[in-house]
Amino acid sequence: MSSQIEINKNTIQYLDLFGYKNDKNINQLVNETKKLGNVSKMQISAGQGKFIEIIVKMIKPKNCLEIGRFTGLSSMCIARGLPKGGKLYAVDNSREFIDIAEKYWKIDKVKKNIISIIADGKDTMKNFLNKKILFDFIFIDADKNNYLNYYKLSIKLLNKGGVLIFDNMLWGGNVTKNTKDKTAKTIHDLNKFILQDKRIDFSLLPIADGVSIIRKI
After folding, report:
1. CA distances from residue 71 to 42, 66, 160 in whole angstroms, order as listed
2. What domains can you pick out in the chain, each with its CATH number?
3. What is the average per-residue pLDDT within 178-182?
4. Considering just the CA atoms, what is the radius of gyration of the chain in Å?
């Protein structure tokens, strides 16, 4: 059977139970983030975190970049997967929530592998380009209206064979609709751009709010 099943509430509950191994530190960070209220929607799911951790362990990247740190769950999962000597630059334009992130990086014993940068994402990426600092893995979960800019910069920053992951690539399913939602249109335009890009291989997966995993050829 090759058809895509419908991801309904029962399926999501099943995935939460059987989709990944229970993880104390991830659970505690997720629960603390939920206490922040509506803004907690910005956090990736625990399942996404484990997915990213496994991808990083598989590709063994030495140099990683994240744009959009929030409370640090994705950073923690990337850092867990790093090989010996690997490092992650975790970039966010705000100091807000950095205390929560660093608290759990320390608990999880990955803080030593994370370099936190408080700065604009695009500017930071351009600075890395100017310094000729390239990456083996990049994760983007930041302001959606800049997604195409982040993509173009990421492809320049990736080593050959490097992997790029984008979150929120289905935007609640609104990318499929004729909607006035500007963010949905921006993400749809990026999906079309990626589809035509001959520099990469990719797959758009229905994980959480949609995850694109992209490999530079």
Report:
1. 9, 13, 30
2. 9-216 (3.40.50.150)
3. 83
4. 17
Judged against a pLDDT cut of 60, whether residue 1 lies above it is answered with no
Q: Give the distance, in angstroms, between the CA of residue 97 and the centroid of all CA atoms in the same chain.
A: 17
User: φ, ψ for residue 158 (rounded to 5)?
Assistant: -80, 135
Q: How confident is the model at residue 2 (pLDDT cuts 50, 70, 90)?
A: low
| Residue 3 pLDDT grade (very low, low, confident, very high; cuts 50, 70, 90) | confident
- Rounded distance, CA 154 to CA 164, Å? 7
How many CA atoms lie less than 13 Å away from 147 in the CB half-sphere?
A: 25
The strand order across the sheet containing 63-67 reads 114-118, 87-92, 63-67, 135-140, 158-167, 211-216, 200-205
182 burial type by CB count under 10 A (0-12 exposed, 13-18 middle, 19+ buried): exposed
* Joined tokens for residue 135: 């990456």
Residue 178 pLDDT exceeds 80: no
Q: In whole angstroms, what separates CA 66 from the centre of its chain?
A: 7
φ, ψ dihedrals at 115, nearest 5° = -105, 110
CB 165 within 8 A of CB 138: yes
Residue 184 pLDDT > 70? yes
Residue 145, CA distances (Å) to 21, 122, 150, 168 in order? 34, 12, 10, 12
CA 17, chain centre distance (Å): 22
CB 65 within 8 A of CB 79: no
